[in-house]
UniProtKB/TrEMBL annotation:
GO process terms (BP): L-ascorbic acid biosynthetic process
Top-rank lineage group of the source organism: Eukaryota
Pathway involvement of the protein, from the record: Cofactor biosynthesis; L-ascorbate biosynthesis
Oxidoreductase among keywords: yes
Protein name from the UniProt record: L-gulonolactone oxidase
Keyword terms of this UniProt record: Ascorbate biosynthesis, Oxidoreductase
NCBIfam families, alphabetized: pln_FAD_oxido
A Pfam family: ALO
Residue intervals of the D-arabinono-1,4-lactone oxidase C-terminal domain: 156-295
Organism: Aegilops tauschii subsp. strangulata
Xref: Gene3D superfamilies: 3.30.70.2520
Residue intervals of the L-gulonolactone oxidase 2-like C-terminal domain: 307-344
Length: 357
């Protein structure tokens, strides 16, 4: 049993790449949240302290609480309206959470009910685990968790991947270069509280990280209408492909879209040993599925190639038909990582002869 001491600090992102390399070693439970559009980084200074340290703090993260169901539905309607609006509207809306979360200490309290200031000191189990929604009482859906599938509420993609610590600063620098080309293109990340950057230690497990790694995690808007493009989807898609292909990142198994898992199992040197153990303990495939067999390279591919497949992340485009040419989205190289292939919007006046082929 031990306690932790938590303080949040906000700085500009001018030294993001350098800090990515060292922050995890400076603080045992430290992490970072990058807000690309705002050019800011929220540093979580989180360290182990003696159990005798005063404080009974609690982490009840704001995003993992239950909310009035009607409010969640209205919020989604507003989000859909903003998505169809201009960059200015999207970026104005994207500033709401980054402004409100610090004012509420991200859900931390010093005694379980009120926040009086940093540091927040509390027992490990009250600081590490968060989310009172799981304990919310059933009230006939008058309130619900934001992710409750029974409610037409928030709907989003969640991307998570890990890259070797030795490569993480260069990836962060490339992400900033991509941002600098058009900062408004990443307002959709700020709208969901940016890019969470965490640290993962090396492991001898068959599917563990072979060296200390950095995990990048972010969520972004998803339409309920299949095949409908997202504003500036090409920028986020390039960011993902750059991490996975240029820097050899591995996807988090429980997140991501289909294309992220293509070839992922081959990045683990001991994947063969893992599959042997899997076969020994589950020879009848009771705990397997068609999806897990595709992801693990046993049978088939996680990619699903058809018209507009890249819009949904089911594939990486290699032809315009994999995007949505009828809506002005064509398969094009990335802007920073030229080997990426993303669905870019091209107004009618900018289309050339190749677009018609």
């Amino acid at each position: 049993m031990f306690k932790r001491s938590v303080t949040f600090l906000e700085r500009d992102d001018s030294d993001l790449a350098a800090q990515v390399a060292v922050w995890g070693n400076l603080h045992e439970f430290g992490d970072m949240t990058w807000l690309p559009r705002q050019g800011k980084v929220i540093y979580r200074q989180d360290d182990r302290v003696d159990v005798s340290s005063p404080g009974d703090g609690l982490n009840d993260y704001l995003g993992f609480r239950s909310f009035p169901t009607l409010g969640l539905i209205v919020a989604r309607v507003a989000e859909e309206h903003v998505e169809e609006s201009s960059d200015m509207a999207r970026c104005l809306a994207a500033g709401v959470l980054p402004a409100s979360f610090p004012m509420q200490a991200y859900g931390f309290t010093n005694d379980g009910s009120s926040f009086t200031g940093y540091p927040v000191v509390g027992y490990q189990h009250r600081i590490q685990a968060s989310g009172s929604c799981i304990d919310a009482k059933d009230n006939l859906l008058r309130s619900s968790c934001p992710w409750d599938p029974r409610v037409r509420s928030l709907f989003f993609y969640n991307t998570g991947f890990s890259v070797a610590l030795s490569k993480a600063p260069a990836l962060a620098a490339d992400m900033q270069r991509l941002r600098d080309l058009n900062p408004r293109a990443l307002c959709s990340l700020d709208a969901k509280m940016g890019v969470l950057i965490r640290y993962v230690g090396a492991s001898s497990a068959y599917l563990g990280k072979t060296e200390d790694s950095v995990n990048f995690d972010f969520t972004y808007y998803r339409s309920y209408t299949q095949g409908r493009p997202r504003a500036h989807s090409d920028v986020i898609d390039e960011l993902e492909q750059m991490a996975l292909r240029k820097y050899g990142a591995v996807p988090q198994w429980g997140k991501n879209r289909n294309f992220a898992f293509d070839g992922a199992i081959a990045k683990y040197a001991k994947s063969g040993e893992f599959l042997k153990v899997k076969e020994r303990y589950d020879p009848d495939g009771v705990f397997s599925s068609e999806w897990s067999d595709r992801v693990l390279g046993i049978d088939g591919s996680p990619n699903i190639v058809h018209k507009s497949c890249a819009i949904e992340g089911l594939c990486i485009c290699s032809h315009d038909s994999h995007c949505a040419p009828e809506q002005g989205y064509y398969c094009r190289p990335g802007k920073v990582y030229a080997e990426a292939r993303v669905c870019s919007f091209r107004p009618t006046s900018h289309r050339d002869h190749n677009d018609e082929i």
